[in-house]
Amino acid sequence: MPPADNDGTAGADELSALRAMCETLARGAGEIALAGRREAIGATELAGTTKSSTTDIATEFDEAAEAHVVGLIRDLRPDDAIIGEEGTADPGTSGYSWYIDPIDGTTNYVYDQPAWSNSVAVAHGDEMIAAAVYVPPLDEMFAAAAGQGATLNGRTISASDETDLSLALVGTGFGYQPSIRREQAERLVRLITQVRDVRRLGSAAVDLCMVACGRLDVYYELYLNSWDAAAGELIARESGAVTTDFTGAPARPEEMVAAAPGVHAAFLEALQAS
Ligand code: IPD
Ligand code: CA
Q1: Residue range 209-225: average pLDDT?
Q2: Which CATH number fits domain 12-157: 3.30.540.10, 3.30.1310.10, 3.30.420.270, 3.10.310.10?
């Protein structure tokens, strides 16, 4: 891996190499998960342990996919930090940090609904610099590197050119805790009359990539985890979407908005009034 530039920022070749590594890791996780999915006949055979609530589950394939990705990173870049949804927390010493959601949309995965993905991103310091989200049921690989745009299966993608919020298709999601869901649902009731329609796809990483390729005009969600948002946010931003928190400050997992540039301001206004 070429070293970072003298000012400490990653150079173009390094960014491309890290994006390729993200793609390899996400595809590897996807292949493990897809093989597990194809072996199963019904949802119950994939049921796994519960996590933050009875509906927040992890299957053996979430764990196997994370173990695969973590093993490769530890081999190739042993000094990097690694944060994974299934419990990996390596502190690292290099200044680079990997964010892994081995299966984002595990509920869809268990129910054999197609919107699930494998999400891998790498940051240098506080800046996310390369990312990939693989969607195995569609064989779609979304990827991005900082300043180099976003791609879908190697082709450049762009956020939509929608300018009218009332025509915007909006994605959102819900957390696993009932009290948080109530807050999220009440906000949605106030927003739904102001937009074309709403989708709840079931994978935050997929939602963000849908904004990146114009299949959604807006996505917003409260209280994501770093691994849900890391890759998709960079991909959305590199596609030309505007990503912020609910006040217009830089996006963060706890408050995520990604919107086509022509509707971002109007959506934020609606969100703040909701
Ligand atoms: C969840 C999905 C979902 C979002 C939740 C996430 P998981 O991740 O991304 O779309 O609404 O907030 O926790 O549990 O399927 O990896
Ligand atoms: Ca997730």
Answers
A1: 98
A2: 3.30.540.10
